[in-house]
Queue: 2 jobs
Job 1
Amino acid sequence: MTIESLSRLRQGIYRFVGAGFSHPTPDLIAAAGGTMELFDTLDIFDYSFAPDIADAIGEVAQADLAELSVAFVAIFEAGVGGVSCPPFETAYVGNPRTGDVATLQSDLKRAYLRFGLNPKSVSSGEVDHISTELHVMARLCALTADGDSTDRSAGRVLAYQSEFLDMHLLVWAPEFVAKVASVDRHPVYTSLSRGLASFLAHERQLVPGLVDLSTGALP
Amino acid sequence: MTTLVACTDHGHLDDLEIDDVRVVGVAELCLQPKGIVAHVPEDETRLIVGIHRREASVGTVQAVVRRLGFDPLGVGLIDLAASAEASALRTSVLATAARTSHYPGASPEQVKLLASNRTTRRGLLSLGAPAYTGAPRIVEDLCVADEGCRLCATRCPTDALVWQGGSVRYDPNTCVACGICLTSCPTGATVNPSANPKAIQAEIRAAIDESPGPIGIRYRCRDSIIAGEDGWHQVEVPCTGMLTVGWLLTPLVMGAIDVEAVPCQEGGCNLHNDEELEATLADFDTVLGAFGTISAFDPDREVSWLSERSTLRVIEHLALLQPDAACALDTADVGSISIDPSTCTACQMCAQVCPTGALNTWLDSDGVHIDFDPRSCVACAQCVATCPEIAQDAISLARGFDPADLAIGRREVRHEPTPLCELCGKPVAPVAMLNRIEEMLGEGGTATMALIGSRCVDCRGR
């Protein structure tokens, strides 16, 4: 295991879970079949989140597209009295009456540009959609994997990852996934939310350590 | 059924036969932990792995058992070097099986990624499988931080726990999972899957019951690797700095012939908790001196000796057997308070912050009453720190215990009459408090005092 393969693994998980929280497509279900094999070559079982991610992949691979689409709309897009689990950051941290939503979305756009990412190229969804934020992390992991792990830019990209987790994903995603798990409407979304919770709990500990490694805070 | 997969390069597996445990020996398991995979039946529910800790990577073993579908924190790990003979290994296997059977499970937040001591910049090029341990979680229903308790935060050596505005915040990145918060919590609100008191007590019980002869219990830190010695069973805790006098007394009460606690490594503790351990051991010696010999006292085997307020629980039982064994201690979590009525204003702040209810207060027509029960006091000293009359030593704490004092139990430690409001008849304030206010106001406050002293808060504006 190297930092490159670890970054590839993290990139893959962010991409898979990000796709899982997007509108279901036949490609998602078809791709899930080979995903675990790929992750296995990247030593996923070295990490504590492996069982939860494996469960989620298994559920997606067996899912029926029509049922999944219905569940997606019911959980994330419609509901009596409002959407039961809004998949947007601004629904958890912003107050729409005070203009927080616009400020936060603008902050996110600026952050994506600072990371060298064009928001529209990352995802077709809203900038604060869970899927977009997960895809942003996937792109940052890809930059780490592609770069020379010993040069300064690698440390900068890892620092971006740490910053984005602390400022955005870790602030609201735990509440979001807890909500999805409690709704327990479809096994795919229940297992995806458990997988993401487990993965993010691990990221909270892993990424600062990687930043220390790359910036020379360690001997 | 439990399966033990152990490395044959170090163990004494030839003579090992244990009821309900399938013993499998694998050559070079320490170097090739993947050898575990071929020897665990698919339907196995409990697994113990025997390795030589100096040779095998714990992270790799955890990765292998995780692939098999086991929760690595719930898999028993035996250091074969710690079991000097086959009989000791048998005891160790049974004790570990007892501990794993009480494993409570862990949520994702309770899984702590351990930083390797050997991580360097070269680690960027090659990372090993990381090792994990249990991390603390605070059970909000049991936590009394909203009442002012902050014992876990005060004792946390890395400030991973911070008390703020009536709740305790936890930072997983600064936490070193030493377990000190677990034993310092007076209400059992802090839990850690790797240091579950019931599981550890079950291990001690099994070690004592299954040992062919008398046995001592040696607590050791997660990071320490100690060679086995005849007549001793090693019990792993996150860090021996977490031990309290109660945790040290418990094995003796349960029938062990001796108890020891070893820090992480020669010359000091990895987690810098040496001073905590030294202070606890000094108090432990004092308690042993006071009681002389401690004989087993565990008739019904159902007492949770290691749960919250362990020291109090054990000492209370020992005090029944030896009523004259009083002693003063330096840092132990047991004590008694006294209130000086000449300086105490009966404001009752002490009772409000007491996390265990050892100090209790109530109001009746007779005035304000404060009572105290030494059987609930964990000597946290929050009452002393909160007292507004701290400069006058209105309340003081004496660490230690007196069996006679414990036998009395709850008693009134303060009573102060309270005048009633001239308008509505409700209590105004304790006389001592009114006197203190008058003293502070001086001669110019006569008119104010006339109002404050005769009317309650609600009626002063009328």
Job 2
Amino acid sequence: MERDRSAPCMTGHTTGMAYSILAEIGQLLTALSERGEAGAINLRSLPMTDADRGQLEEILGRGEVRAELDLAGATEVWETSYNGVWWIRHKGAGDKIATEEIAVTSMPEILMTHPVDIAAASRRIRQDLDSAGVQSQEQKHELGQKNEWEARNV
Amino acid sequence: MSDKRTLGEVLTDRGVSRRTFLKYASYTASIMALPPTAATAIAQGLANARRQSVIWLSFQECTGCTESFTRAKAPSIEDLIFDFISLDYHHTLQSASGVAAEEARHAAMQENAGKYIVIVDGSVPLKDDGVYSTIAGISNLQMLEETVKDAFAVIAVGSCAAFGGIPFADPNPTGAVPISEIITDKPLINISGCPPIPEAMTGTISYLLSFGAIPELDHLGRPKAFFGETIHDRCYRRPFYERGMFASNFDDEGARKGWCLFEVGCKGPVTYNACATLKWNGGVSFPIQSGHGCLGCSEPGFWDLGGFYKPLSTAKGDALKYVGSAAVAGAAFGAASAVIARNKRNKILKEG
């Protein structure tokens, strides 16, 4: 008799967890809609089987937005078919899922640019312009003012 | 060594964005069972923190805890912890040796007095003046006391450092004791396991860095985030336990169908650890998912508490008789094993 080699893990069975999470998402959506309160559910801490995760993903479906981020490993973010419900999947070593969460918000924070990074980008672009010998608008303005002053005082 | 800049400044200069901080923070929040919304506070805390000086002392141990801590296949989010700490002393990993290594330890202690963390793996032998394990001409006890003197906190990683582990097992020929028997005047965190789950170690350090405080601990000094629930509480095979469906040996129908491993000695109902949710090898599996019962390696005295393949109901010691409820059994086992371990330690200390 051939031995069943797939059985010991039993991770291919659904447990009903997907619908429990769906109910919680419903509560969080109500809070977001009525009071503007964002919320999130950490999927990693829940005893879900692979089949549960697949079932939840199928129920929520895919919406209008999808983003791929390259942050010390890949991160995928997509809005589900329920507007305001986002699936965030962070991958780590070996492209395995490091953590996964459902964010109920108008915009996940991970997609927004932090002010510190904007300031760093601003510094970098000035350096790049300097090294290329191109004057920035600010420098042109300063130079224009200087020329105007010199013209008046000749 | 000492860098006065914040981690945010250091990593921004290296092109690491705050999004990456946020990703790491989300990962830390998830492994510590904090609400996902805590990620913003963790990211901010990490960005404002200075690189943490860490002195790692290895005593009577097998280096399995270091293996676990450093285990990673490729540069990834899990590796960011190595950007957040400055590992100033570690026997196995440092390139320096002899006098230079000891000078590095003393320099780190001096430069970061009151701020550095001491991580200890391995138990400390006390019998015969600690002659059974010496480093740089001094006993483990001397090195521990000298190094911890100006530390901010001490983390005992692995069951040997936390509870004595295998060196502490009968007949304990070296008079081994856990770190908690020696260090009583500093914040001490136990991260038990043989070895501990890597995320339990990195998550605890990240918490210390982000919040500048010790995470909530259980009665054995372990972070509740990782040791707050039993393996059994979070085991995907638990529905079989509830229905009374057990494997009675490793090759019967129950084993092949993935039923509960209680009858073949699984210690999951009395073992507090996060294996069932964090799993091992990057989340691939954990012992029960691979078909073997839990050994209970994160509990005190696990080595001496009956056979690994004997069900809990027949395990050694009256206090360990199965009492019908996994939660009650867990508490009874934990308390009983802690008492046994403490009595044993007291006996060793008396005998000197």
